[in-house]
Design brief:
With about 150 residues, the protein is an alpha/beta fold. The protein is built from six helices and five strands, in the order E-H-E-H-H-E-H-E-H-E-H. A five-stranded parallel sheet has the order 2-1-3-4-5, with helices on both faces. The two termini are about 15 Å apart. About 30% of the residues are buried.
């Protein structure tokens, strides 16, 4: 299962995430997309929760899915990567170290902007990511290559 981490708040982000997820699923991958599969306020039982309870449920459900995933996909686009996705990356990387589980951590960086002089990403992010690809085709090929190992 692929855990899809990235920004999911604007219409453009949600559309990109949904479109990429459709491509991944068409290629035979199971995907947990938090904006679709997560603890959304309009879905039961989450709609009956207080805002604080729902925030906790979001954290707990996403954490469980991160721990269960075989592939952690981190969309690192933006001037700086989404802070929630950065925490998710830390959880995925730390869990992999603690369990010695063979989880692939892959970054998708389609954005040409760079936040750091001489580098596109913070070294703490780069150190936790196994491979960074720059387009959908490269992402699909990297996942297919992993599946064939």
């Amino acid at each position: 299962m692929i855990y899809f981490a990235g920004p999911l708040f604007s219409e453009a982000e949600k559309s990109f995430n949904a479109s990429l997820t459709a491509d991944l699923e068409a290629a035979g991958h199971d995907v947990f997309l938090p904006q679709r599969d997560g603890a959304e306020a309009h879905k039961l039982p989450y709609s009956a929760m207080s805002p604080d309870e729902r925030r906790r449920a979001v954290f707990e459900l996403d954490r469980e899915q991160i721990m269960a995933c075989d592939v952690f996909l981190f969309v690192v686009d933006g001037r700086v990567p989404d802070e929630g996705a950065c925490v998710e990356l830390g959880l995925a990387y730390g869990h992999r170290l603690a369990t010695q589980r063979g989880r692939l951590i892959i970054g998708l960086h389609t954005d040409c902007r760079a936040a750091f002089i001489g580098a596109k990403l913070n070294p703490m992010l780069l150190g936790a990511i196994d491979v960074i690809v720059d387009d959908r085709g490269s992402l699909l090929r990297a996942l297919e290559t992993r599946a064939n190992l």
